[in-house]
Amino acid sequence: MADHGTTPVRQLLLVEDNPGDASLLRSHLSDLPGQRFEVLHAITLRQALDSLGNRTFDLVLLDLSLPDSQGIHTFSKLNEAHPHLPIIVLTGFESEELASEALMGGAQDYLPKRDLDSRLLGRSIRYAIERKRGEEALARERDLLYTIIDNVPDRIFIKDKDSRFLKTNRSLARRFGLVHPREMIGRSDSDFFAPEHAMAARQDELKVMQTGQPMLDKIEQETLPDGSVSWVITSKIPLLDPHGGLMGTCGISRDVTDLKRIEQELAAERNLLRSLIDHLPDYIYAKDDFCRYTLDNEAHRRLLGVEHMDEILGRKVTDFFPPALAGQYDSDDQAIVRGGRPLINHEEPAVDRAGNKRWHSTTKVPLRAEDGRVAGLVCITRDITETRQAQEKVQRANSELARSREELMRALTDLQASHRQLKEAQGQLIQAEKMQSIGRLAAGVAHEVKNPLAIIRMGLDHLAQEIPPGSAEAQLTLRDMREAVQRADGIILGLLDFAKPRELNAALQELNPVVDHAVGMIRYVARQSKVRFVRDLAAELPLVWVDSDKVKQALLNLFTNAIHALETGGTATVKTFAKTLEPADIVGTSDSRITHGFHPGDRVAAIQIKDNGPGIPLDKIRNIYDPFFTTKEPGKGTGLGLSVTRRLVEMHGGRIDIRNRKSGGVTVTIWLACGKQV
Amino acid sequence: MSKKRILIVDDESSLTRVVRLNLEGTGRFEVRVENHAVNALSAAKEFEPHLIVLDVMMPSMDGGDVKAQIRRNAKLKTTPIIFLTASVSPSEAGNGGFTSGGELFLGKPVSTEKLVEVIDQQIAAQSPDLPPVVSPPETRASA
Question: Which CATH class is domain B4-126?
Answer without folding.
Answer: alpha beta
